[in-house]
Amino acid sequence: MNDSTTAAPAAGAEMPEQRCGLVAIVGRPNVGKSTLLNALVGQKVSITSRKAQTTRHRITGIRSADAAQFVFVDTPGFQTRHTVKGAGALNRNLNKTVQSVMGDVDVVLFVVEAGRFGLDDAKVLSLVPPGKPTLLVANKLDLVRRRAELAPWLKSMQERHPFAEFVPLAATSPDDVRRLLQIVQPYLPEQPWFYDEEALTDRSERFLASEIIREKLFRLTGDELPYTSTVVIDEFKEEGALRRIAATIIVEREAHKGMVIGDKGERLKRIGTDARVELERLMDGKVFLEIWVKVRSGWADDEARLKSYGYE
Ligand SMILES: Nc1nc2c(ncn2[C@@H]2O[C@H](COP(=O)(O)OP(=O)(O)OP(=O)(O)O)[C@@H](O)[C@H]2O)c(=O)[nH]1
């Protein structure tokens, strides 16, 4: 506390201490991380600029409630249903990134399906740095028929890892999600907020553009397309209210290129249209979007190239 503060609150006035901290949500695919993140943030992430605090992390969402600000950070590799197979350097880099993200956050939410703990869950848990406050979030509680059977399972989880808290819940229940925020709150350090109250995420528009195109790409190609396909933004220009964006989808094989382009170019057209519509909504202005598809084999094994695509 600074003694020279002139505008100190009147003696005896209750000033709630401000808390703010970084939270990582990790877990194997399909346990409900995205559902939980969206529920915790309260609405779909949108674009705002950062007020203070430089962070090297990508922020996926911010929730400011009562006296606390929860800053959720991205842990690449756990955000997608596309598992990394046969992508040597990409895999190694993701593991390194995930570990370094978890090393920096104040608290980790380790999400599993209530009553279940498999090898794939164990792999994720093994990446959590020792000593890091970690909460076990046992999600999809609504699907558990016999709640009584959960008690021995929770006990076994207690033996597996020194979890700070055990929170069985359904990410789909707003009451549960509110309770989770209350449980997480004391794990955030007492410090001023990093962001304006209205801020939802600080990801740059350029980065969001690549994420949205990527999302449409994977959504519209289903499971056919390997995870090693990526999106690079070649140009991002603001001309008044218009954004001019040129992007390249990079695939590993000629056959993948065909998948992306589709019959008579239909699929690529759809990816472009869907991405443009969402970007226009997010950026609140017109978007001119051009997408190319390129084959670059073996890129996922090329460390130098990975760096140039922003994976470090
Ligand atoms: N019944 C029930 N279903 C849930 C709950 N939370 C998530 N789901 C469902 O579980 C599925 C996976 O949820 P996601 O949020 O996409 O899971 P994720 O962990 O982000 O998945 P990846 O993107 O593959 O890592 C979806 O069909 C959700 O609707 C829950 O509390 N109860």
CATH class of the largest domain: Alpha Beta
- Calculate Rg over CA atoms: 21 Å
Low-confidence stretches: 1-13, 46-56, 78-87
CATH architecture field of the largest domain: 3-Layer(aba) Sandwich
Structural class: alpha/beta
Strand order of the largest sheet: 2-3-1-4-5-6
What characterizes the major β-sheet?
Answer: 6 strands, mixed
- Under CATH, the topology of the largest domain is which? Rossmann fold
Overall morphology: globular
How far apart the termini lie comes to 38 Å
Portion of residues in beta strands equals 15-25%
Count of extended strands: 9
The CATH superfamily label of the largest domain reads: P-loop containing nucleotide triphosphate hydrolases
H/E element order: EHEEHEHEHEHHEEHHEH
Ligands (ions, cofactors included): guanosine-5'-triphosphate
Q: What is the domain tally? A: 2
Region (G2): 53-57
Region (G1): 27-34
Function: An essential GTPase that binds both GDP and GTP, with rapid nucleotide exchange. Plays a role in 16S rRNA processing and 30S ribosomal subunit biogenesis and possibly also in cell cycle regulation and energy metabolism.
Subcellular location: Cytoplasm; Cell inner membrane
